[in-house]
Every structure is written in structure tokens, then in C-alpha cells.
Design goal:
By secondary structure, the chain is an alpha+beta fold. Helix content is about 15%, strand content about 30%. It has 11 helices and 38 strands. Bound molecules: calcium ion (CA).
């Protein structure tokens, strides 16, 4: 831990006398009484999920279904990154705190949008190569005058809420391992809770609690067992080890806790979900057993980190069905008595209602079409898996629905106690699973064990049309008691924004197609929309100052879908990333600058991909191109897009000037000339012949796409 002397002195003076304490209360003062609702102000938004129950429901009513048509932009702020914006801001005492891509932190006057301070943790660009799903960050935690952010490279940093100056910084992961952190921390009784990501790259998942005042590690809960030769940290992990096969510990195994937390103050239980195992289909290291505690919902005692219970939604997961979607707590009347429940719309397509005191399954039903399982056995709680979904056994391609993108991903759902409905950003993204017969682990690409070259989208227009037709996105109003849909609102495609509900009978959701939309919560009537000039994936939030209510959202297209899906991402939207904070109020008078026409050249910075094909008109050796296609799919596609079609976040390599300049291509790919933007040197992974083959493949793709239009794109 590093304590910064000047700031330590500053922090020290805030505890001198009552005046200083009062001053604290006007700058980010959030404590247990506020967070548990004892002294909560309905005007504020204190955690990324609004409350410990992660309902994302606000009791504010100044904006309602009757007047939302008067909602206008009140202020906006242009961010200096052009990657996915996934944070939900928090607000207290008139100050809005949020993060952008690359883990940068901002504090704004919540009324005017005036920037109060800005903190850039200077995340090294090279870390991007280990971020499976974009260089995103989902927000901060507030606790007693400090703002806590976890950075992409694994640090947890405490900032003075008044100044943004760092008070302490700790490294929460082994920096020699390919960990990343994208989730927001949660503050619980003086503890800052944080997880991590990186399953596909070879890490061991865990959750840590740090002392909010000092940054000292208080406890750590591992979600999978480590090397048996080194002994197990707990009896639970010893038991879990019997559900694994192969030598899972050698590459870390996964089961990372990469998203959000919920907390029940009465039970002192902290809830979180774990992700997938790496590689997805576990051959050749062994048949997938249950692999506890992957793809599970887990409860631990927040004060000690001791295990309370778990529910494994997808035992022996081979489909990337993380259980990391946000967990909403509620009291529901079931069988004539109130039950304290925890609810999740899982990536695997089932909506789970569990008793949160003991993890007992109450009900589980599909909220989208589901083909991997016929249902969930109510007694055992286990899914009834369809044999054809076991692509690791059949050796055949299996097009799964949900796919690896999930029926619901990190984009948060919201629960409204007024309508007793859950509002889910749902999607259908069928995905072709095919085990990679020649799978070898690597360090500079995700290890999924999937043959991405064989399942890459072919140029055949009929196949393309079929794949595009299967992609769907909609906002689902779901009744968790009846386990059935009440209404749904269609979007052009998947990967839309998280959800906010309010007591004004409103649901707010941004879309991939570039709108923020308000619906009537009770029946789904579309009441209002705003053109955001970019896709919105983050969830909106709301707060009120002096009776005036604001609705605020981070706009900025990105995340894993546009990063890896190539042409399929265009189904949802084709707007460039224009990263901004957008804040709305009734009769607001702010205006966005006119969006430049989305031409082929929009947003292309000098030195990145251009808009005109620059590939040399040379004859491509088909053998080299075929080899290059396999190398590209394994090593390059997860950032630059399937079949070398960029979704707009990273350079479209069909158009890079480096294709015509072998020395430049080598400087970038072999030597890492663009490392500051995340493009590290691949010389340790790919020999010169493989690099040449990739270049041949890209030239071939450029020739095939000579008439295509690249997605508009910007840098870092
Ligand atoms: Ca995953």
C-alpha cells in the first residue's frame, strides 16, 4: 500500500472538530445509516445500484408519466475516451461521481455539469490486451468522504471526495497474472468490496474486502480451489476441488467475480455471482464436472468473508454462462407469506428467484427462448441439459441460444416495488459453439477452447442474413412471481443499455441504436426519447436537487459485442462512439452539438484505419491467407472483430495503411509500436511467418470488401 504524504495530511484535517465533520457531509459523506435507508434521502443515488438491494428504483416522482414529454437535456460533458461507457454514476449532496473507460474518475456539480475534479489513474495501454470485453469501468463506491475506484490494471484507489486526490492505492491482484478489474466496488460498513476479471486469460477468481480507512486487506474469498498440493484455504474449497477434473489450477480456472454486489444489512450477507471456467469446453484437460463455484450465485458474511451458501445455476458450464448479472433483492409474497428473495435474469436464459437467507431455489423459468436446457429441476435446482448442447462430447457445431453473449449480460436490470415487475435488458444472440480440436493455451488471447476460425461469419450473403435475423434485443417487463412476461419493447438488435425505474411510473433505457427512451412502467407505452448520437449500454440513474429531478446516463457505444462480433454488431446500430455524460431535466435548455454525418471517414484519427481500401493490389497466396484466417481468429478477432470487420471501437484492419507497408505492419504487430493504445507486441506469440499470413489474410479480406463501408471509429 502506498500512502501519499500530502494527501494524508489533508485527510487528517477533515476529522478535526465538528465544523470539519459538517464540511465532510457536503462532500461525498455516505455512511451505514444512509446506505441502509435509516437516514436515506430519496433525492440521492448512493451506490451504482441505487441501494444495497440493487433495485435501481428511485422513489422520485417529479418526473412522471404525465410530464416526461417535457424532459430535455439539462447538461452534458464530453469525455476524452472513445471506448464503451458502462458506469452508473452516483450522486450525493449535489455532486455526481462517475467513471469512464480506462478507469478515469469525474466529479461534477450535479445541477450544472461543471467539472469539479478529474482523476486519471494512468492505466497502461498494454492492459487492454487482457480485457476480454473492452476497457470499461462500471463506477465508484462512496464511503465517508471518499470515492473508491478499481482500475483496469487491478488497483483499488481511495480518493478524497472534495479534491479527487488519492489517499491510498492498493494492488488487488497479482500483476504478473492477466487479471483486469472492470466492476464497481461496494462499500459495506467500512469495508470496500471488489472482485476481478480475466477468466479466459488464466486467473483464479476471488472477492476481497479492504479497510476503507487504510486500504488494508481484511478478507479474501476464493471462488474456486487452488493447487491441491499447496493446501486449501477452506473446507469448502477442498469440497469444491472434488468437482473439478484435470489440472485446473495451472491456468487459474476462472470463476471470476467481475460484475456487481448486493447486500442485506439484516443478514449481513454479501451477494455476488461468478463467471465461467477457462477454457469453456474443458478438453483436453478433462471432462467438465460441476466445477464449483463457477457460474454460481454466492452469499458470504460481509463482516468476515465466511461462506454462507451458494447456488450453481450452470453446473459444468461450457457455454460461458456467467452468473454475474446484477442481483436484485426484494420481499415477495409467495405461498401466502413474505419471502426475502434474490433475483437474477441469468446469462443462461433462466430467471431465478432464490430465498436469500439460505440460497434455496424458489423458481426458475426461461425469459427468452432457451435451447441448452429443458428446464430447471425444482427439487435439485439443476438444469436438465439437452444432450446436443454438449458440443464438447458431440464434436459438432451447436448453435446455442442463449449464446456466449447471454440472454442478459452485465447491463443491469431494475426492480420496481410499485409494479412488482423486473425490467430486463434481454437479448437473443445465438452463438456457434464448436470445440477447438487443436486447442492450445496462449497468453495474448482469450482461451475459450472454441474454434473461432471455423465458426467465423462467412461472406455468403444467405448465411449472413440468417445470422443477422437471429439477433434480437428487447426490454422485458417480467413478473417474478408468475414467472411470465407482462410487456416487451423491441429494439433493432441486442446489446442495449441497463435499466432505471422510478415511482413516476417510468422505465428508462438507452439503446444500441442511439436513443434514451422512457416507457410507462405499467404497460410499456413509449412516452419519450432522445437521440444520444451514440449507442448507450450503461444504465441511467436519477437524483433531485431543490425539488428538480435529473435523469443522467453515460453514453458511449462499446463493450464486448461491437468489439468481437464484426458485422453482426451493425444489426444493433452503426453510430460511432461519442462518449458523454448526458443529464436531463424537465424543460432543460442544453443542446448537443449537431452530430457530424456518419460518413465512411467519420471519426478516423490519423494513423489508425482509413476509410478507403489501402490494400495493395497484389495476388494473395490462398494458402497463406487460409493460415492467416486461423491465426487472426485465434489472436486478433477478439479486439478487431470477427472476419476482420471492426465494430467501430478498434481499427478496421482491412483499411489500415500498414497492409501496403510491410515494415509498418511489422513495427505494429511484431514490435508493439501502438502499445499505448492496447496493441502490444506479438513477437512472443506469433512468428514472422504467422504475422505475414495474417497480413495476407487481411489483404484478401480487403479485396473481398472493396465495396464495403467501415464502421466509424475513434482512438483510445
Ligand atoms: Ca464469461
Amino acid at each position: 500500500m502506498r500512502l501519499l504524504p500530502a494527501v494524508a495530511a489533508l485527510a487528517a484535517c477533515t476529522v478535526l472538530g465538528a465544523d470539519a465533520a459538517d464540511a465532510d457531509r457536503a462532500s461525498g459523506w455516505v455512511d451505514a445509516a444512509a446506505l441502509t435507508g435509516v437516514a436515506a434521502s430519496a433525492n440521492d443515488w448512493l451506490t451504482t445500484g441505487h441501494d444495497y438491494a440493487d433495485t435501481r428504483f428511485s422513489a422520485l416522482t417529479a418526473i412522471d408519466a404525465g410530464n416526461v414529454s417535457r424532459l430535455r437535456l439539462a447538461w452534458s460533458y464530453d469525455l476524452d475516451t472513445h471506448r464503451g461507457q458502462e458506469a452508473t454514476p452516483v450522486e450525493v449532496d449535489g455532486v455526481l461521481y462517475t467513471t469512464s473507460a480506462w478507469s478515469k474518475v469525474y466529479a461534477f456539480d450535479a445541477r450544472s455539469g461543471r467539472l469539479l475534479w478529474h482523476f486519471d489513474p494512468q492505466v497502461p495501454g498494454r492492459v487492454a490486451v487482457h480485457a476480454c470485453c473492452d476497457v470499461v469501468n462500471r463506477g465508484v463506491a462512496l464511503w465517508q468522504g471518499r470515492v473508491y475506484v478499481a482500475t483496469l490494471d487491478g488497483r483499488l484507489i481511495a480518493l478524497d471526495a472534495r479534491t479527487g486526490h488519492p489517499v491510498w492505492s492498493v494492488m488487488t491482484v497479482d500483476p504478473k497474472r492477466p487479471y483486469t478489474v472492470t466492476g464497481a466496488p461496494l462499500a459495506v460498513n467500512g469495508r470496500i468490496i471488489i472482485g476481478n476479471a480475466g477468466a479466459e486469460f488464466g486467473v483464479r477468481g476471488y472477492v476481497s474486502a479492504y479497510d476503507a480507512a487504510s486500504g488494508h486487506l481484511l478478507w479474501r474469498f476464493y471462488t474456486i480451489p487452488g493447487d491441491p498440493a499447496r493446501g486449501f484455504e477452506s473446507a469448502l474449497l477442498e469440497r469444491a476441488a472434488s468437482t473439478w477434473s484435470g489440472q485446473w489450477w495451472k491456468d487459474g480456472g476462472g470463476a471470476t467475480v467481475w460484475n456487481s454486489f448486493s447486500y442485506d444489512p439484516q443478514l449481513d450477507l454479501l451477494y455476488f455471482g461468478t463467471g465461467n471456467v477457462q477454457p469453456w469446453g474443458r478438453k483436453p484437460s478433462g471432462e467438465p464436472a460441476d466445477s464449483l463455484l463457477s457460474a454460481s450465485i454466492i452469499a458470504v458474511h460481509a463482516s468476515s468473508g465466511e461462506y454462507a451458501w451458494h447456488y450453481q445455476a450452470t453446473p459444468g458450464d461450457i457455454w460461458d454462462y456467467d452468473s454475474t448479472q446484477n442481483l436484485a433483492l426484494a420481499s415477495l409474497e409467495i405461498g401466502g407469506r413474505p419471502r426475502q428473495v434474490i433475483m437474477q435474469a441469468s446469462k443462461n436464459g433462466f430467471f431465478y428467484v432464490l430465498d436469500r437467507t439460505n440460497g434455496q431455489l424458489i423458481s426458475a423459468q426461461p425469459f427468452v427462448p432457451v435451447t441448452w436446457a429443458q428446464g430447471v429441476d425444482p427439487k435439485s435446482g439443476r438444469p436438465r441439459v439437452n444432450p446436443e448442447a454438449r458440443y464438447d462430447r458431440t464434436g459438432k457445431v451447436w448453435v446455442g441460444q442463449p449464446g456466449a453473449g447471454g440472454a442478459h449480460n452485465w447491463q443491469p436490470m431494475s426492480y420496481s416495488p410499485l409494479t412488482a415487475l423486473v425490467y430486463i435488458p434481454a437479448q437473443e444472440m445465438p452463438f456457434p459453439f464448436l470445440a477447438d480440436a487443436g486447442f492450445k493455451r496462449t497468453t495474448l488471447a482469450p482461451n475459450m477452447g472454441i474454434d473461432q476460425a471455423a465458426t467465423s461469419l462467412p461472406p455468403d450473403p444467405q448465411v449472413k442474413a440468417q445470422a443477422l435475423a437471429g439477433l434480437k434485443g428487447y426490454l422485458l417487463a417480467w413478473d417474478p412471481l408468475a414467472q411470465r412476461v407482462r410487456w416487451r419493447a423491441e429494439h433493432p438488435g441486442p446489446w442495449n443499455g441497463g435499466v432505471l425505474t422510478t415511482a413516476g411510473n417510468l422505465v428508462f433505457q438507452g439503446t444500441a441504436a442511439g436513443e434514451l427512451v422512457a416507457y410507462r412502467a405499467s404497460d410499456g407505452a413509449r412516452l419519450w426519447s432522445f437521440a444520444t448520437q451514440t449507442g448507450v449500454i450503461a444504465a441511467p440513474m436519477t437524483y433531485a436537487i431543490a425539488g428538480r429531478q435529473y435523469v443522467t446516463v453515460m453514453a458511449g457505444w462499446g463493450g464486448v459485442f461491437p468489439l468481437v462480433s464484426g458485422e453482426l454488431a451493425f444489426k444493433s446500430g452503426r453510430l460511432p462512439n461519442r462518449s458523454r455524460v448526458l443529464s436531463f431535466a424537465l424543460d432543460g435548455t442544453a443542446k448537443l452539438p449537431d452530430a457530424p454525418a456518419t460518413s465512411a471517414s467519420a471519426g478516423h484519427p490519423a494513423g489508425a484505419a482509413g476509410s478507403e481500401p489501402t490494400a495493395p493490389t497484389v495476388r494473395v497466396d490462398p494458402v497463406a491467407a487460409a493460415q492467416g484466417a486461423r491465426v487472426y481468429a485465434r489472436h486478433c478477432g477478439y479486439c478487431h472483430g470477427d472476419a476482420a470487420v471492426s465494430g467501430g471501437l478498434t481499427p478496421d484492419l482491412r483499411y489500415t495503411p500498414a497492409l501496403a507497408n510491410p515494415a509498418l505492419f511489422r513495427a505494429i504487430v511484431n514490435d508493439g509500436a501502438l502499445e499505448s493504445q492496447g496493441m502490444v507486441a506479438f513477437r512472443g506469440e506469433l512468428d514472422a511467418q504467422s504475422q505475414d499470413a495474417v497480413r495476407a489474410y487481411l489483404i484478401q479480406r480487403a479485396h473481398q470488401s472493396a465495396s464495403a463501408r467501415p464502421a466509424p471509429q475513434a482512438a483510445r
